[in-house]
Amino acid sequence: MPRTHAALPRLYVEPDLVAGGSLTLGKEQSLYLAAVLRKTVGDEVVLFNGRHGAWLARLTSDSKKSVALEPMEQIAAQTPPSDLWYGFAPLKTERLDYVIQKAVEMGAGTIQPVITRFTQVNRLKHERLVANAIEAAEQCEVLSVPVVEAETTLERLIDTWPADRRLVLADEGEASASPVDVLGTLKGQKVGILIGPEGGFSDDERTKLRALPYVVPISLGPRILRADTAAVAALAVIQAIIGDWR
Description:
- This protein is an alpha/beta fold.
- It has helices spanning 27-36, 93-105, 126-140, 154-160, 180-184, 203-210, 227-241, and strands spanning 10-12, 23-24, 44-48, 54-61, 68-76, 85-88, 110-115, 147-148, 152-153, 165-170, 190-195, 215-218.
- Helix 2 (93-105) packs across helix 3 and helix 2 (93-105) packs parallel to helix 7 (227-241).
- The model has no long low-confidence stretch (mean pLDDT 94).
């Protein structure tokens, strides 16, 4: 998608966006525009809500408690939601934030934290994950914000996995090889990618996953990758071979 109005602040909002309408921001976003960015009446910003594309809007009130805005025109059409499912074992805080942000940038449609035996973090703040996804979408001009699901266990994930979606498993135990040929066989199918924790999946988890008919193990090359690096690498090769980079 070509960049438009790149110099303007971009904000995710919940209300509908229509020409001639109006909306009022909450305290946090109002403070950001009026106090941090020092925007005043007449200044322009870009708004999006994940449904109606990107809209150029003008401030009609610059109160630090409740900035009011008027959407003027749509400057980018709404992009369709991505069908790419991304599951990962949560990491510690800073790297967890990184993984969420990169998943948004790489075009994931659903982001699913999965608790495994060796997962470093077992209790997550879901609202923080959602906020990180929204912030990444604002910064990278992503119009379809991914759905961030609440954490689940690997066992529950397996029990509820849909039969019509293949699950690509980034398997550190797989013999080193290019994933290109394997992923090429999945073209046109619904796909998910699962990244394990630091230290990898346990032997029992790997055995159980590899025995499932919908699981497609792949190697991510000859080097040992950190979990956050593996996430970006796996999403990149999927998007390049069978995703929306083609």
